[in-house]
Recover the amino acids of this structure.
């Protein structure tokens, strides 16, 4: 029998209901229930998301426990996403976590979603990979967030730069919507881009000072470019789809890679990591490995299933808090906007 505690993680910040069980940093189960209904609307509808979480939460947690091979009475603590995210969705996960912890009389641990994305790099998986060593740089890029930080330890993360408007993942999704691709658009663009010419079309990019990001202008430039070409040729998107996908992806990834390179030059860290849903993008992963080779540093890139929203990363963050006995009370309320990693 393992000497490590069993941590149940619950994630419900957006449109994925997820539950996971870990022992130490070893993943015993990581169950995710998606919500296909949002594809009809081209984006997440908050009210529909929270209703779907209510339907999914019990079967998802039950499945996670069964796959882990443990009973609920064996859980040492419950960690759940408290924010940032959609409030209605967060309330479903937090209410369930509080009720189950109260029933089992075990500690309850709140987790910041962005912090958990970073700590996903410390989970043990079947893939052989190095874990980052403190301090390290970390680029978090997802549908709702884009930021570059210095990670001094598990709970000391200094934000060096962030987006002043839209996130990188949102830029992918909006570009995909303009091209008539299904939601979520990031993976669709990534697939098409492999067959396209990334230098075919040029779009305007914001020149941000220091290590901040901006994707709003790029989205607008892409929209106007496509709109104007469609006036000249109604079949423009269909005839140039691969090149359009490759070109917009090139610009988004270029912005992310340039900031990471600038950070590597400025802070001279010996290693860096990726996190967040955009870390699943094949071109970004390739660019980050090229940077690691260029500057002779170690790059830690999570397996693709751990880049998107999942409960294993929530449980991992909860595990490190459990070791420090950082528990919470039932009175803690969820929050929608990013904070500077609250305890």
């Amino acid at each position: 029998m393992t000497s490590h505690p069993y941590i149940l993680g619950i994630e419900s910040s957006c449109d994925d209901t997820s539950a996971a069980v870990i022992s130490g940093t070893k993943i015993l189960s990581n169950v995710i229930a998606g919500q296909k209904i949002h594809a009809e609307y081209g984006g997440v509808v908050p009210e529909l998301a929270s209703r779907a979480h209510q339907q999914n939460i019990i079967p998802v947690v039950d499945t996670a426990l069964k796959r882990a091979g443990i009973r609920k009475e064996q859980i040492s603590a419950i960690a759940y996403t408290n924010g940032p995210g959609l409030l209605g969705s967060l309330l479903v996960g937090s209410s369930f976590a509080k009720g189950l912890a109260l029933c089992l009389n075990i500690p309850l641990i709140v987790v910041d979603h962005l912090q958990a994305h970073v700590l996903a790099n410390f989970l043990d998986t079947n893939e052989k990979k190095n874990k980052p060593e403190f301090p390290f740089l970390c680029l978090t890029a997802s549908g709702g967030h884009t930021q570059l930080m210095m990670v001094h330890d598990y709970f000391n993360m200094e934000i060096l730069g962030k987006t002043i408007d839209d996130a990188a993942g949102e830029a992918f999704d909006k570009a995909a919507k303009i091209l008539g691709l299904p939601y979520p658009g990031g993976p669709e663009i990534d697939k098409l881009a492999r067959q396209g010419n990334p230098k075919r079309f040029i779009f305007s990019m914001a020149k941000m000072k220091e290590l901040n990001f901006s994707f709003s202008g790029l989205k607008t430039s892409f929209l106007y470019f496509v709109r104007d070409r469609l006036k000249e040729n109604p079949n423009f998107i269909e005839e140039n789809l691969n090149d359009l996908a490759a070109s917009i992806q090139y610009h988004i990834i270029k912005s992310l890679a340039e900031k990471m390179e600038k950070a590597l030059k400025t802070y001279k860290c010996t290693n860096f990591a990726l996190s967040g849903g955009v870390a699943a993008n094949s071109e970004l992963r390739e660019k980050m490995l090229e940077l690691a080779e260029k500057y002779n540093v170690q790059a830690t890139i999570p397996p693709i299933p751990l880049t998107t929203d999942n409960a294993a990363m929530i449980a991992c963050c909860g595990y490190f808090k459990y070791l420090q006995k950082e528990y919470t009370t039932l009175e803690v309320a969820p929050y929608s906007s990013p904070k500077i990693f609250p305890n």
Observations:
- The first strand starts at residue 6 and ends at 11.
